[in-house]
Design brief:
The chain is α/β, with parallel strands linked by helices. Helices cover 34% and strands 19% of the residues. A hairpin with a 6-residue loop joins strand 2 and strand 3. The longest helix has 23 residues.
Length: 523
């Protein structure tokens, strides 16, 4: 339908479909079974047959597409950090000014989400109305009804607690029980809602997400990481709401981390949505299975993530290196970034990117394969080297100069410099043959160098002078490349400083203070 009636390119149509499917609550076993069936396809026709076995809720998919069509970003807004002034602009109230500072100037977008839904709520509800209840112009009649099954699709966008302190529930349950039932115009006899009453009820009760980034920053628990330098994290804002948020809404916010190495593996990170914002000259390791991750406005930073169930979004970054296994990778308006990735869907490159380098996933940690299985990510299919380029007018020629594949001659493996327990002892799925061959060639070069030194027949004094010369050159190289900072930050703090993120004594769940500088050095 998308290709024939909407004239969408096939890959763009699958892009929308697969992006939505990532949000559907499949079990890890179902995802792994699907990955196995895809990996056994030997031709495009076989792959298409497997793809056609996928299905999604039609009305929820319709709402998802509606959001993709209407939610756009103003370039003028992104440049000046506030709404473009017009003759209709009025002076904001203090509460509105605070909300604007949170949602726009500092990129906390909860207010923008609420404003978008409220502004388009009537159009959203009209999408759920049966065609027979629409006027000739396509407008819903005032007395029309929406079925309960159609309202269930709103669960994609809305949820909330029945009353203070109660568990969060899908919106259709809230509207069919308790005091909201009458306000929403729900008839248990016809199992339908009055469109007008439903719209009024939702407009009255919708509020900002209490588990979003704004709330996490204001009322979330602050995280105290093991510090190697006194006061190094004074400017950083690191918080979580995992102690109070329901599944799917767990949030970890890391903002303004500067010249520091942070590392964590913990049950508190499992299934969390992580936002890494405005970090610079930092090294961040989050080695737990995550729900989603966003790397926004960072520079000169390395981010190593555990398996990410849905998407990793990289936006407005410069000279950032991201290492991850993820359901989807999305990059926009970024430059000089290198992505070492393992992903079953084609990486999506949005407009505004320059000098993006795609490379194979090249590291591991002992529990990586267990974490991948827990979120349903397999080693195949892996299409890290087949990006989709999306321009302002649709798909762009993949030969565009905004990206390159890392040449094998420039490839090096990475060691995660922490001691952990687990069974994974190599890169899952291995390396592509050309990159494995490049590593083998480098190993041979090291062996030839060692043989040359042994064959030189240096005496004790000459060996001492030679060693000092090599060490001096090595220190010079560390300083020039910035690796000196990375190694210095891996030096373990004193025993009294070993703390987990919640102030407990360092235990198996935390890597803080268990950093092995020598492992990184030998890399």
């Amino acid at each position: 339908m998308a290709c024939g009636k909407l004239q969408l390119p096939e890959e763009l149509a699958w892009l929308y479909f697969e992006a939505f499917d990532l949000l559907v609550a499949h079990t890890a076993e179902e995802k792994l079974e699907r990955a196995e069936s895809f990996s056994q396809c030997s031709s495009k026709s076989e792959l298409d047959q497997q793809r056609r076995k996928m299905s999604v809720d039609t009305l929820q998919f319709l709402l998802f597409l509606y959001i993709q069509q209407l939610y756009w970003v103003s370039l003028r807004t992104s440049l000046i950090g506030e709404e473009w002034p017009t003759h209709r602009t009025r002076s904001p109230s203090p509460s509105e000014r605070d909300a604007k500072n949170d949602s726009q100037n500092k990129n906390w977008d909860d207010q923008a989400h609420l404003s978008f839904v409220l502004s388009h709520l009537s159009e959203i509800l009209e999408l759920l109305v049966e065609p027979g209840q629409l006027s000739q112009s396509g407008q819903a009649l005032r007395d029309c009804q929406i079925s309960l099954e159609a309202v269930r699709s709103l669960d994609l966008l809305l949820e909330g607690p029945g009353s203070q302190g109660k568990a969060v529930q899908p919106v259709h349950r809230l509207l069919t029980r308790g005091p909201l039932q009458a306000q929403a115009g729900f008839s248990s006899l016809s199992r339908s809602f009055s469109l007008h009453k439903l719209l009024t009820c939702l407009q009255k009760h919708l509020t900002i997400n209490p588990f979003g980034m704004t709330a996490c920053r204001r009322v979330g628990k602050k995280l105290a990481w093991a510090q190697q330098v006194e006061g190094a994290l004074k400017r950083a804002k690191i918080a979580r709401n995992t102690h109070m948020a329901p599944p799917g809404s767990k949030m970890v916010l890391m903002s303004q981390v500067f010249k520091q190495t942070l590392a964590k593996t913990s049950d508190k990170l499992i299934g969390a949505n992580v936002k890494i914002h405005r970090c610079s000259d930092a090294f961040i390791y989050l080695l737990s299975p995550l729900r989603s991750a966003s790397v926004d406005k960072c520079r000169d930073t390395t981010v190593v993530l555990g398996p990410v169930e849905t998407s990793v979004h990289i936006h407005s970054c410069q000279n950032v290196r991201v290492v991850c296994v993820a359901g989807r990778i999305v990059v926009g308006t970024s430059s000089r970034c290198t992505l070492h990735i393992l992903t079953p869907t084609r990486p999506l490159l949005l407009p505004g990117n320059t000098d993006i380098t795609l490379a194979p996933f090249h590291t591991f940690y002992p529990t990586l394969e267990d974490h991948m299985a827990s979120v349903g990510l397999a080693v195949v299919p892996n299409v890290w080297d087949q990006p989709l380029l999306l321009g302002t007018e649709g798909l762009v020629n993949p030969d565009s100069s905004c990206f390159r594949l890392l040449p094998p001659a420039e490839f090096c493996s990475q060691v995660v410099p922490f001691h952990m327990e687990g069974d994974t002892c190599e890169v899952p799925g291995g390396l592509p043959p050309q990159y494995q061959a490049a590593l083998a060639d480098k190993q041979k070069s090291i062996q030839r160098w060692q043989k040359t030194v042994l064959a030189a027949g240096l005496d004790k004094e000459q060996k001492s002078r030679f060693q000092k010369l090599v060490e001096a050159k090595f220190r010079e190289w560390l300083q020039e490349t910035g690796h000196r900072q990375e190694l210095d930050s891996l030096i373990p703090p004193s025993t009294s400083q070993l703390k987990t993120c919640d102030g407990d004594k360092a235990g198996p769940e935390s890597m803080c203070g268990k950093m092995d500088a020598r492992s990184s050095l030998t890399c």
